[in-house]
Automatic annotation (TrEMBL):
It comes from Cyprinus carpio (Common carp). Residues 698-714 have a biased composition (Low complexity). One of its GO terms (cellular component) is nucleus. InterPro entries: ARM-type_fold (IPR016024), SAPS (IPR007587). Residues 631-749 are annotated as: Disordered. Residues 647-657 have a biased composition (Acidic residues). Belongs to the SAPS family. This is Protein phosphatase 6, regulatory subunit 3.
Amino acid sequence: MFWKFDLHTTSHIDTLLEKEDVTLTEVMDEEDVLQECKAQNHKLVDFLVRPQCMEDLVGYITQEPNDDVEEKIKYKYPNISCELLTSDVSQINDRLGEDESLLMKLYSFLQNEPPLNPLLASFFSKVLSILIGRKPEQIVEFLRKREDFVDLMIKHIGTSAIMDLLLRMLTCIEPQQLRQDVLNWLNEEKVIQRLVDMVQPSQDEDRHSNASQSLCEIIRLSRDQMFQVQGCSEPDPLLATLEKQETVEQLLSNIFDKEKNDSAIVSVIQILLTLFETRRPAFEGHLEICPPGMNHPSFSVNQSILDAVRPRLKDFHQLLLEPPKKTVLNTTWGVLDPPVGNTRLNVVRLVTSLLQTNTHIINQELIALNTLGVILDMYFKYLWNNFLHTQVEICTAMILAMPSTQSESPEINRENDQEPIRENILIKHLFQKCQLIQRILDAWGSNEKEQAEGGRRRGYMGHLTRIANSIVHNSDKGPNGPQIQQLISELPEEDKERWEAFTSGQLADTNKKNTVDLVNTHHIHSSSDDEVDFKGSGFHQDSSLQQAFSDYQMQQMTSNFIEQFGFNDEEFADQDDVGDIPFDRISDINFSLNTNESANMALFEACCKEKIQQFEDTGSDEEDIWDEKDVTFAPEAQRRTSSGSTDSEESTDSEEEDGKRDPFDSANATSDDRMEVDSGDGTVWTANFDDIPMDTGSSMAPSAPVSTSPAAVPETAGWNSPNTDAESGWADFSSFTPVSPKDPLRSNSPVAMETSIETVDPLGVNAPIQSNYCSDPEEEPVSDRITETVTNGSMKETVSLTVDAKTETAVFKR
């Protein structure tokens, strides 16, 4: 194991902390100081919680660094100090949260004049946020004692880190009662009113944006908390203050009663859009988990907000006509003078949210101002502003699908024999006053004309197509279908004909193009050979037979279904005992097939002959490699002596699997069991006997002289002369003399050869050699040499076999 060898490394910080005069900066210069702190290194934590070290750490994140420090390392120590203080070590949290002098030094950062250093502000906010989460009681008590805390927070609201800290106080405090106390305290300090005052033209854009975002987050967090926490009888005081009519009126007064400021107007509209957000229940029955007696304000807009907005609708309408001054905007397709601008885009979004409330008095005010007409004018004027096009599409779709309110006009009848129709004043205004149908037709025609002349397709055409489809859909299936049909029928005859031709022609063609599949969706058949082979086969389908079989299946499934559903006890009984199972109507079914059996059989045989080819190997000239061959061995007196296990003609599986080819293996020879011998001089080949253990005999074996004449070669020798018609250069292994099993000295070679050895030492490696073949005089003596006489056609050649007992390698030389 690793600890056996003491491979663990000791941190350099431990060695550094053993010094008596070590400083905080020296420790912070170490690369692994943060890792060691998070790992709660005892020596390091004990060093950091010293009073002087804690004071220095807080000082780094609350005081501006010296200007003479290099910019690269200017904020090095403040950053490391923040990470150490927020490493979530309990000893550090305890020391910092319970020491009021350290908290006062930390709090002093808020007392600096704006603007605050954004980097140091983020360090301050991060440290105080983790203290609020870990020590909520101590921190809240400390902050409530500071009378200027809310004033300082509002003063520095332009710094994003301070805004985050304010929101942390609403989300990081876990005890519900403590959180409610904090909300009441902040409401008493009028934090909502102070944030509202920040959204006015006299303030800068950073304060506008951060104050608006703070109010929006307070609304969302309060509404979410209301549904997450059950059994809370006290309402959220901050949300209640925000939804008051006077608060909304103050917001609107800040932007309309003073000079027009684009940033302030957009910020106020963002707050109003958040107040108008309606949240639907996430699942059925969600309303039941809410505390009883609540009116579920998240599912409907508070009436006080609508009452505050309605008198200001004319001011929002005027913003659409006269927005804040914008510089001329040059684009790739032309000049925008004036551009749409963020102000007018957000006003259109506000109108969409007001329409979603479906409030009768709001709808009447918008109709009186003709706000929808102005929005449609902007739609067709700004061809390439898809943000505007999207909002206009949402407005029209919402109006067409919106049910009429109870306070609108009474029911009207088209004819006496038809059902009454409740009139939707917005739809009537859209078709009659705004002339939506005529404007769609005119815009479509103008676009086609421009495209025919080589111009571009207008940018709003996609949204215009969806608006036209919405009209067609709602006229057929929408809740206001009868009214829409009546309004279309009341159009001038020319416009009505144009609309009918448009919906059946151009619009239908466009929808067809838009619904074309991007890829081919045809059925992909299996690539199985069987399916391909018989795919074209046609089988006669007898309708009566199919109907009979279908009836049988249905009868079997429905008969006694209730009693036999599931497992039946009879299924687990012996089959011999189950002899009374009813067949119901199966005997009544007549499966009569009027087919020509002989023709079908002939067709089947023809297919089989065509598909199947018989495997015939007759007439092949090749010899069957699996035929057994007769093997004869040389006489005992002429065998080479050796020791080892009995060797036979059988080969081991390991030799076949390894794929090692033995030159003496009969499987590698041809049908004549001959071995080709190259007649060239100096040819050397190697026989590898790695898989055959080679042992040497311990006794002397008599050797016989090897004759070089043809007559001296016995007929039973292991190397026989081939027939006269045989090819030259082949050695014949067709006959060998059987080996006596009583002889303990046996060669490990797969084939015993004719050898001539005079003496063999006990290890068989230094035996003297007799040979009538003259070897190279410069050749060094080898470990074991055997001389063989090989018949090659009409002549005899003597070859020497050198065997190395260590490497088990045999080398032939001529």
